[in-house]
């Protein structure tokens, strides 16, 4: 594999977009490629985490890349000790997040780690329910702690209580301490996130491997459908929208919701109709906690929650009302999923010998038991905890702005978390002394420069991969969540060589064959543009896009595996889907007609 056609471009060969020169200085050094590590980086394979960061990342928002892969490494490599995989290394390239699976290739080391994994994972599998209950309590506690942190504007003088109570401690120090506490808790949240996730994927991979060995011709998604029909809180936000749509139809309040407009106007128009009080009370009851839900994944400060922009859930409710008015059933087809699931299980189980059937039953039971966590953890982490985190960060940004340190609150995000720590001390020390903060002038020119850099970075899409492809992808997160398999990497490489035919090959994530017109979605704000019967094409779809599936005919993504949120949601809603195509958002154009095959994992452009 010495020829350039046998590899992707190296990290240091990535072309910087015009106007983005010097982008590297915006991020901590350990997130960017460095000359001293070039040889090692070139020998490895890096793929874009466009699942969580679908566009270039502001300097402060890179905190997510730090926290996520620190937590992933701790649990996979050091805690549960995955036998054939360590952590996922991380780099920023042109503002995008790229990750690199660290494989364990020495058979003796794999064997040693396997024994450790069996002991540690075995404890979790045997005590899954109680440990999961404890996990939810830990997550609830940390979210509440983050929510209790206050970032108040600096007063002219210390409150009199500081003197009368002999505190000897400035209220300005609360800003510094609370910032550190907020950052610490954000990192803690991501350690919790991965505590059980690898085990969830691991249980499914065991079942997957058993099925592949027993039934060599079985399709990957057929195995996935054996654990379909997820119950629990993962689909609760969308269920709340459906309930509100049904109630609006029952009370004959649907017209102003369907007509649209601003959220304030819609709610005001509803309030003027008979029966509105009951519906508005139900709407308010649903908001907390279920509307603390990001329209995308919540890794960027400029992503909105439903509560932050009520137009998002109201649009979805309006879509459901329109379907109800047409006499359609809007409930998730859980019973049908269960029937299909049980039929598939019975069909394949009947082919097994008694001892094989017992192993099959045990592996399937474990997969189904741990499977809800794979979706539910997303509610606690990416939505509830991230919603609080960004709310508190906005409060802190406003403190800087009110003190005259930044011209506007948005300036805050052009500094990374370490630079904010310096700026924060500059702010409180200058306030304490009674002199202007030096950062006002120090950062003014740099922020203006970084604004231009970010605009240039965000004008581009992420290349799917860099570096040298591995002989085999073994990391369970890469395979199950991102859809980065040995076969997919080779397909991406073929596309990068220019060997593609226009036909995209991905992973068949949800069954069905459908033709339609493409709608490329690059930002969650564009969801409202979707028209009935279109094929939604995106880097990845978020769980919160479920209501959009009420109008589209199919889904295609750049990235995502069989256990990605996009794949699971599509299966649960009976929506044909192809994931992990690598190049869909780059090659397909809005208005283009395609055929997607959710069985074969293909996307075929059609002549008009």
Automatic annotation (TrEMBL):
Q: Would the keyword Electron transport turn up in this protein's UniProt record?
A: no
A family per Pfam: PEP-utilizers
Residue ranges of domain PEP-utilising enzyme mobile in the record:
531-601
Q: Does Kinase count among this protein's keywords?
A: yes
GO MF terms, alphabetically ordered: kinase activity
Q: Which UniProt keywords apply?
A: Kinase, Pyruvate, Transferase
This protein's name: Pyruvate,water dikinase
């Amino acid at each position: 594999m010495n020829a350039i056609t046998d590899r992707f471009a190296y990290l240091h060969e990535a072309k910087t977009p015009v106007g983005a020169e010097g982008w590297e200085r915006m991020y901590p050094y350990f997130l960017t490629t460095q000359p001293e590590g070039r040889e090692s980086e070139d020998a490895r394979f890096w793929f874009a985490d466009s699942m969580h960061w679908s566009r270039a990342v502001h300097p402060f928002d890179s905190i997510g890349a730090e926290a996520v892969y620190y937590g992933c490494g701790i649990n996979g490599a050091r805690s549960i000790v995955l036998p054939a995989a360590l952590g996922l290394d991380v780099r920023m390239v042109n503002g995008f997040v790229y990750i690199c699976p660290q494989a364990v290739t020495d058979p003796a080391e794999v064997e040693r780690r396997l024994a450790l994994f069996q002991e540690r994972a075995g404890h979790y599998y045997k005590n899954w329910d109680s440990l999961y209950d404890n996990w939810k309590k830990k997550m609830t506690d940390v979210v509440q702690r983050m929510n209790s942190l206050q970032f108040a504007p600096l007063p002219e003088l210390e409150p009199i209580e500081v003197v009368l109570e002999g505190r000897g401690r400035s209220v300005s120090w609360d800003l510094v301490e609370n910032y550190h506490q907020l950052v610490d808790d954000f990192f803690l949240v991501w350690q919790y996130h991965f505590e059980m996730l690898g085990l969830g994927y691991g249980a499914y991979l065991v079942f997957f491997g058993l099925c592949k060995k027993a039934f060599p011709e079985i399709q990957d998604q057929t195995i996935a459908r054996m654990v379909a029909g997820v119950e629990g809180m993962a689909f609760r936000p969308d269920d709340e929208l459906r309930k509100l749509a049904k109630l609006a139809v029952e009370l004959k309040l649907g017209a102003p919701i369907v007509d649209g407009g601003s959220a304030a106007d819609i709610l005001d128009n509803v309030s003027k109709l008979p029966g509105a009080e009951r519906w508005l009370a139900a709407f308010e009851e649903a908001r907390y906690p279920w509307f603390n839900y990001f329209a995308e994944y919540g890794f960027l400060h400029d992503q909105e929650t439903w509560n932050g922009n009520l137009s998002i859930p109201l649009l979805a409710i309006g879509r459901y009302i329109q379907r109800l008015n047409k006499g359609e059933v809007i409930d998730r087809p859980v019973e049908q999923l269960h029937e299909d699931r049980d039929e598939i299980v019975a069909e394949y189980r009947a082919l097994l010998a008694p001892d094989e059937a017992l192993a099959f039953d045990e592996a399937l039971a474990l997969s189904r038991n741990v499977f809800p966590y794979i979706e539910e953890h997303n509610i606690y982490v990416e939505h509830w905890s991230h919603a609080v985190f960004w709310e508190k960060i906005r409060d802190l940004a406003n403190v800087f702005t009110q003190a005259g340190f930044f011209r506007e609150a948005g300036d805050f995000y052009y500094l990374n978390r370490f630079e904010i720590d310096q700026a924060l001390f500059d702010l409180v020390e200058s306030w304490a002394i009674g002199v202007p903060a030096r950062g006002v002038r120090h950062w003014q020119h740099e922020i203006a420069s970084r604004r231009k850099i970010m605009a240039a970075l965000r004008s581009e899409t992420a290349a799917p991969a860099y570096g040298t492809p591995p002989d085999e992808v073994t990391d369970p997160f890469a395979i199950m969540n991102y859809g980065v398999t040995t076969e997919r990497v080779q397909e991406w490489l073929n596309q990068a060589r220019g060997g593609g035919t226009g036909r995209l090959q991905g992973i068949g994530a949800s069954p069905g064959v459908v033709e339609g017109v493409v709608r490329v979605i690059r930002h969650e704000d564009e969801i409202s543009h979707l028209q009935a019967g279109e094929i939604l094409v995106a880097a990845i779809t978020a769980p919160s896009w479920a209501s959009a599936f009420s109008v589209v005919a199919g889904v295609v993504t750049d990235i995502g595996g069989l256990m990605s949120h996009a794949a699971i949601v599509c299966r649960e809603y009976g929506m044909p889907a192809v994931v992990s195509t690598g190049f869909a958002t780059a090659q397909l154009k809005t208005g283009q007609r395609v055929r997607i095959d959710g069985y074969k994992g293909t996307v075929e452009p059609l002549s008009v």
